[in-house]
Amino acid sequence: MTAPDESRAPETDPFRGNLLLEALNASDRALLAPHLERGKRARGMALFRAGEDVSHVTFPLHQTTVTLVSRMRDGRMVETATVGHEGAIGGVVSHGYLPAFSEAVVQVPGEVLRIDAVQLTRARAASSSLGDLFVRYADCLLAQVLQSVACNAVHPIEERCLRWLLTFQDRLGSPVLPVTQEMLAEMLGVRRTYLTGVIGSLQRRGLISVRRGQITILDRAKAEHAACECYGKVRDHFRSVLGAVYAESGAIVAVDPTQRHE
């Protein structure tokens, strides 16, 4: 079972901190505002697990970050998508209350907004602009999942590792990532002992530094050049379909489908 919601009094702007919600016009905000619930989510918390009905759509706020993972019979898991303040997770396309195929795990704790999946379905049906925004986001999320599958199949572990770290940085907006080697090994679907060698190689190349409980990207430009093509392809898709705006640091700072960047 998923953990109960920990409600807090809403901020003055209930949409602040999630770029997808901030992109809504006033009438679309009015459709969602009465149904939004605010809460906190701890690291390691499962928003839903495979086979559970997805009752809510969750919007990470600020630096809160969630990964979609597929878990194997032997307990190993691998990341298929990473969602932060640029998006939403759970029942984004479906009408909700359908069994989840994968597991959604909180990697960076913090605040979230959530809405009952049925209420979001009704709002999408009432507004073409709201429906269009979520269709565009769902397309980008699917692109991330599909590219992750291709990446895991054909690219070297060093390139995959950099792709994942850069994607994480885009959601956090900081080169200092609260990532342990154990967590990174889980996300990449490899053993910790194997990842140790990979991390050492990236350190010797001057791309990252490692301290207890964190990994820092030292040179983003070099890291992007050394990463596989998958990182750039997904990023470009977010730009062209969702109108994602990226800062020089790599952080996603805005979403505006009316101003798509080719």
From TrEMBL:
Transmembrane segments: none annotated. SMART domains: HTH_CRP. Residues 155-221 form the HTH crp-type domain. Keywords: DNA-binding, Transcription, Transcription regulation. InterPro entries: cNMP-bd_dom_sf, Env_Response_Regulators, HTH_CRP, RmlC-like_jellyroll, WH_DNA-bd_sf. The keyword Protein transport does not apply. GO terms for cellular component: cytosol. This is Crp/Fnr family transcriptional regulator.
